[in-house]
Every structure is written in C-alpha cells, then in structure tokens.
Write a structure and sequence with these properties.
Structural class: mainly alpha
Strand content: under 5%
Strand order of the largest sheet: 3-5-4
Order of helices and strands: HHHHHHHEEHHHHHHHHEEEHHHHHHHHHH
Number of strands: 5
Oligomer: single chain
Distance between the termini: 34 Å
Length: 609
C-alpha cells in the first residue's frame, strides 16, 4: 500500500539555504534597491510639504521621481517576498530551525526598511490632487497599479506625517511583528504530553481526528493543558497586538474616527454593509449548523457532541468500502479527477504540483499546526503546506489549499500590482475547490455509505464555516471592544470565548472550547486582525459561483478563470456585480447561498435515517 502521509516539499528551486549565492545575491540587490528608494524618498519628502497643491507641468520633475521609485519598489518587493517565503516555509516545517528563524526576523527587518523608504511615495500619492494622481498612473510602468493607488487614496483622512508613518513602521519590527513571531515559536516548539507521550502540537492536533473517542479527548485536553501552561504569554500576545492596533487607530483618527473594523474591511476590500448583511443572515440561519452537529452525534453514537468530536472521522462500519485512511497518492488522484471535471488544465495543475514536490504533507513533531498556501514571487510558483494523515477531512484540506494554489497559478502572468488579492476573494477559490471535489465524489458514490461519507464531510464544513468561524468573529469583536479600555487576562478571554461558542453552538455541544483563543493561531497573526469572516464570505460566495456551473455549461471555466484574475484589481462587491450580477449588500444573495447550505444539511440528516 502506498504511503498514507504526505511528502516533503521542494524549496531548492529558489534557494539551497541561507548561505547560498542566490540568497546572498537577492539580499545584496534588496539592500541596493532600498538605498535607491531612500535617495528618491529624500526628494519626494520635500514635495510632501506642499503635496496638496502640486500642479502640472510645474511638478513634472517630482512626477518622474515618483515613477522611478515605483519601478524600484516593484523589484525589491519581489526579492524580499521571495526570501520571506523561503524562511517562513523552513520555520513551518521545523520550529526549532535557528537559522530559519534568524533569517525570518532579518527579512522582516529588511521589509520594514523598505516600507520606511517607500513611506514618502505612499504618502505623496495619498495627498496629491487627483490631476497629479491621474498623470502618475498614465504611464506603462504605473498603469497596472491604478486600483491599489486609488484605493489607498481613500485613506487620505487617516494619513499621518511622514515622520509618524516612519516611526510606526520602524517600531513594528520589535512590536507587533515580534509578538506574532513569539506565538509562532511557541506553537512550533512547545511539547504536548498526550497519554504519557511527548509530541508536537501539530501531531496532537492530528490525533483529534482519531476514530477512538478517548484518544480524541486525550489529545484535546492535552492541547488545552499545554496552552494553559502558556496562557499568560498568549494573553500578553493578544493584548499587545490589539493594543498596538488601537493606539495606531486613535492616532489616525485626527480628521475622521477609525473603527477597529475599518482596517480588516479595507484589507478585505469589503464594505461594512456587506459584512453586516452576511453576518446577520448567517446568525438567522445558525440552526442549520447546530443541526449537523447534533446529526453527527447521532451518527457517531454520542449522546452529546463535545469539542473533541468535531474532527471525528466517519465510523469505518458505515461506508461500503471500509477504508478509513486514504493514501496521499490516492488523494491527489481523486482531486485531480475532480478538478478535471471542470477543465483539463485544472487536472494538469494538480499533477504538476505533485510531480514538482510543491506540497508539504509530512507528519513531524516540530511542524507548526495548520495548513496554508504560499508562493514564491520570483518564479510565481505556489507551495502547499499541511500535515496529511489520510482522513477525508485532510483530503478536503488538500483540495482547499490546491484551490488557493490554482488561483495563484492563473494569475502568474499579471502585473505584480494586480497579483495580490484579499482574503475574502482568496477563500472563494479554495472553498470552490472543496465544493468541486465534494460534487465529484457525490457523482461517483455507489452506495448510501459512500454518500453518507461525503455528506458527513460536508456537514463538518457547514459546522466549521457557519458556526465556528462566526464564533471566532463574535469573540474577536467582543475582545476588541473591551480592549479599547483595558487589558484582559486569561480568565476573561476564556469567558469571552465561552460566550461566543454558547451563542453559536447553543445546546449542540456538551461543553465549549474556552481555550480556543490560545490554541487557534489566527488570533495571534501580527499582520492583520479578524482572520475569520473572509472564510465565511468565501464559503457562501463560492457556492454562488459554483451555482453558475450548470447555467453556463461549457462557458463556465472561462468565466471562473476570469473571475479569479479580477480578484487583484477589484473590490469584492465589484467582482460580484461583474461576474455574478448580484448585490452583496442585499440579503437575497446570502439567503440563496444559505439555502444551498440548508440543502446540504438536509441531505446529511436524511441519510442518517
């Protein structure tokens, strides 16, 4: 039988290590580019003093300097992102890799220097009259960045002085970035004792998918005991990150008040009205998610589901095949066949990812928990990271991350400024990939056991995305509201988490995961807050996209590909209007998507009988 666990990924196409000639060359070129940016920045800084009154053709010289700075910035961004990705990948696989951790912090410092060098240009483009901004963008080198520049100009009321902007960036390296690094170091290195054996947190998390309920509970409790031993540290991390953000928001409120949701919404390219509508409809329909949790309990023969049962696999005696573990190669073939039902190029992409060893799936003690997709900016090649142990849930996780990777792949020829997309639209491609795989498996099902296996997996997604994700959002909003006034200790954080789970899970669980604020790394990400609602958006939005498949027929793939390519140059609302002809601010789209979720839920519940 082929190996159950996944392979090691190949990063050598980018760098052999932190001392090879390519790394040294990229580092040297980055430093040289930063030096050039600093020279341009000195000249631009003088123009900022009267930026709001700059007029052409008198300001032609500063206009050309701004364009030159832009060209250098594009180059240095590619180099630094490439080095950051490599170092980050290395630390993910081995949290004790001292060389990788040192390189990661060095690259973060280098990026901070780049941001400081770019501060004059960024501030200038926010403050100049529209005529100047239009002229700046009316050039082959800058035209592709029009969407980003115009979007940043909406933040003009919150701009600070150049000195203040530089100070925030400089302090961030040893401030918010350092706090995020601390959490990652803890997650990748602290030992976790499960049933007398010391394992890493990633391996302990994998045990929560064990068929034996006692093993799942032991793993769950061991993870929470481990984090309780570090609860003061994690509470300090959360308080520091949120406190840092609140301080910056207050400082930027000099002309117009900044709310703590403004930044995540801006980064998500989403309007507040859209988010509020989506969350309101989801809360109205939370009984759907609660019903699948109760249904899962019935299937697992558990009187009352507990947090450690949420990742439980389908009992082996339920399916006709009796196979409880899916080898990695078989998972790849399954996903390849499913993607191929949309278009052959998607199947070819999956095979390429496997052939090139661009997927990390090993089970290692020093790996950090979780799964993600990343990519190298120089080669525009994606990488997928996860811990694969053969469960159906992990097959779907693999499909999810390959969906992200395909999204990156179809955009690889676009200008750099149009290559980055927000989390809201990023999750569209990943969850669409899961939906495609689920649909394919449903078509291939030969018995009620097979159909139940699939429906059970989809039921887990319903729970995770319409109950767990909103609970995270509920907790984080409550935390940020209170953190505006004071710091919160571990006991208060646990109480807030308990209240959030109680609101969303109701009576479907016997107890609530009060330590989830510590064990879920998403709350401790330094780069951004509210790493949650984009998943719900992506789930419901992707269902709307998938619903177009039958209507468009052979034209669907081209439409889907075009939608993905627009995600780096439009807001979420604009993408929805152009490609789906829907208004995301209206309840109807979200009600229609929740209707599809309800149908999936009912299919699962019907099969239980």
């Amino acid at each position: 039988m082929s190996a159950i666990t996944g392979p090691a990924w190949d990063l050598s196409t980018e760098y052999q290590g932190f001392t090879d000639e390519v790394w040294k060359k990229d580092w040297a070129e980055s430093e040289q580019a930063i030096s050039q940016l600093e020279t341009f920045g000195e000249k631009i800084s003088q123009a900022i003093l009267h930026a709001e009154s700059l007029k052409l053709p008198d300001a032609k010289d500063i206009l050309e300097t701004a364009r030159q700075a832009h060209a250098i910035a594009e180059k240095v961004r590619v180099l630094i992102e490439n080095m950051y990705t490599f170092a980050s990948c290395r630390t993910s696989v081995d949290g004790t890799d001292a060389d990788a951790k040192a390189a990661l912090t060095s690259v973060q410092s280098l990026w901070a220097k780049t941001e400081q060098a770019l501060s004059p240009l960024n501030l200038l483009l926010k403050l100049v009259p529209e005529e100047f901004a239009t002229a700046y963008l009316d050039h082959p080198d800058t035209k592709s960045s029009a969407f980003l520049v115009q979007r940043e100009r909406t933040l003009r009321p919150h701009a600070l002085s150049l000195a203040e902007e530089d100070l925030i960036i400089a302090l961030g390296v040893d401030g918010q970035t350092a706090w995020g690094n601390l959490y990652d170091n803890l997650a990748g290195t602290v030992p976790c004792e499960v049933d007398g054996k010391m394992v890493g947190l990633a391996k302990a998390a994998a045990l929560q998918e064990d068929a034996d309920r006692a093993t799942r509970e032991k793993a769950y409790r061991a993870i929470n005991r481990t984090w309780q031993g570090h609860e003061e540290s994690v509470a300090s991390i959360l308080n520091a990150l949120s406190g840092w953000r609140h301080t910056v928001y207050r400082k930027r409120s000099h002309t117009k008040a900044v709310h703590f949701m403004d930044s995540p919404l801006h980064l998500g390219r989403l309007e507040k009205e859209t988010l509020d509508t989506m969350m309101r409809v989801t809360e109205q329909k939370k009984a759907i998610g609660q019903s699948v949790v109760k249904g899962a309990g019935k299937l697992l023969k558990i009187d009352k589901m507990a947090p450690w049962d949420l990742f439980a696999p389908l009992p082996a005696d339920v399916t006709s095949g009796g196979e409880t573990k899916i080898p990695f190669a078989k998972a790849i073939q399954l996903i390849k066949d499913a993607f191929g039902s949309i278009d052959g190029s998607m199947a070819d992409f999956v095979q390429m990812m496997a052939d090139n060893n661009w997927i990390e799936g090993q089970v290692l003690d020093k790996k950090r928990p979780g799964a993600y997709c990343t990519g190298f900016a120089k080669s525009r090649t994606p990488r997928v990271y996860m811990t694969y142990t053969g469960g159906m849930r992990e097959v779907m996780t693999l499909a999810h991350e390959l969906g992200h990777a395909f999204h990156n792949w179809v955009m690889r020829d676009l200008p750099l400024a149009q290559y980055d997309y927000p989390m809201t639209l990023a999750e569209t491609a990943s969850i669409f990939a899961e939906t495609v795989v689920a649909g394919y498996l449903e078509e291939q099902a030969k018995s009620d056991g097979d159909r139940l296996n699939l429906a059970f997996t989809e039921a887990k997604d319903i729970e995770a995305l319409t109950i767990n994700i909103p609970a995270r959002y509920h907790f984080e909003r409550a935390f940020y509201e209170k953190r505006r006034e004071r710091q919160l200790g571990p006991a208060e954080l646990s109480q807030l988490m308990k209240e959030a789970w109680q609101t969303w899970y109701g009576d479907s669980l016997s107890e609530y995961n009060e330590m989830f604020w510590a064990s879920k790394l998403h709350f401790s990400i330094s780069e951004l807050s509210f790493y949650n609602f984009p998943y719900l958006f992506g789930y419901l939005f992707s269902l709307g996209v998938y619903a177009q498949r039958e209507k468009l027929g052979n034209d669907f793939f081209a439409s889907y590909r075009n939608l993905l390519r627009d995600t780096g140059r439009m807001t979420a609302e604009e993408v929805a209007t152009k490609h789906l002809q829907v208004d995301l601010k209206a309840e109807q789209f979200w009600l229609d998507s929740m209707k599809i979720v309800a149908q999936k839920s009912q299919t699962f519940l019907d099969l239980l009988d």
